[in-house]
Amino acid sequence: MKRVGLLVGRERTFPEALIARINERGRGEVVAEMIKVGGVRAADEPRRYDLIIDRISHEVPFYRAFMKRAALAGTIVINNPFWWSADDKFFNYSLATQLGVAVPRTVLLPQKSYIEDITSESLRNLEYPLDWQGIVDYVGLPAILKPFDGGGWKHVSRVNSLEELISIYDQTGTLCMVLQEFIQFEKFVRCYCIGQEEVMIMPYDPTKPYLSGEQYRHDPDYLSPQLAERVANDARTLCRALGYDINTVEFAIRDEVPYAIDFMNPAPDADLHSVGEFYHNWVTEAVTALVFRKLEEPAQVRYRWDAFLSPAEDSGAGAKKAKRTTRSTAKEPKKRSTSRRKRAE
């Protein structure tokens, strides 16, 4: 019997639906459950799970350390906790340009404030004062000021003038920020990318309140076939390069050009009440299929940091790739029975 553990935060409907679906498909040979973890030993810590789906360790350092320890014991962790610990959005934008994916003009800014032990002598390499006018001339106005490694639309501001930029920047404290060109978009999409292959393109309205249930709508004809294919290919390109098996990629579309503006979201929203029944069912099925594919791959652990960053390449396993699908149009997943859906909720 193989065991699958879920490490989650406040979300309820997606983890519960995923556990129910894995257990249904596993027929007792694969069993999924919520993880319970207390003190973790550095040595003699048994492998508790064959695979863990991590939805919260980026917010809880204890969980992140546990995820790395689990990987050391041979557990498959989705998403890779070593890469996720090292990743940031500014690097991602820089990488995207190297990969040929369109991104808005972006500038990394020094922090406004520092912890107590950092003094002026610690910052002798910093240019001061900053060339604010040159930065604004490059990025343009309006622009978006946001943390270089944040998520959940936290601490994100639109600035319309140099004076407004400096005023808001002065309130960012120890956060490291990026200033990014604001794309006056005609269309906006958010894409689930599962297993670095399957893509679901979702029309998305970022002006609606986050997690309000008003952001997503199902419209198979929202993008032209040519644009949908480019968006899906760009999403795959980014997720493969970053090594994320579960991620969302957001594109602001202007003049038929999709600009990737956010693609470091390895614990994306899949709540039934937020994304709606269609997308909730789709991602539940896609992640379930990913779990079973991962459990079939040959396991090999080598105790080097680079091996954990690139486990598939290091193992030399020619794992089967999922059939590529681009789904801006997709068939409705089969309905679960009413009683089963109620249990999942």
From TrEMBL:
Domain of life: Bacteria
Biological process annotations from GO: SOS response
Presence of keyword Electron transport: no
Compositionally biased tracts (Basic residues): 333-345
Listed GO CC annotations: cytoplasm
InterPro entries reported in the protein's UniProt record: ATP-grasp
Region named Disordered: 312-345
GO function terms (MF aspect): ATP binding; metal ion binding; ribosomal S6-glutamic acid ligase activity; transferase activity
Domain ATP-grasp: 93-296
Keyword Transferase: yes
Keywords: ATP-binding, Nucleotide-binding, Transferase
Protein name: Glutathione synthase/ribosomal protein S6 modification enzyme (Glutaminyl transferase)
Organism the protein comes from: Pyrinomonas methylaliphatogenes
Taxon lineage: Bacteria, Pseudomonadati, Acidobacteriota, Blastocatellia, Blastocatellales
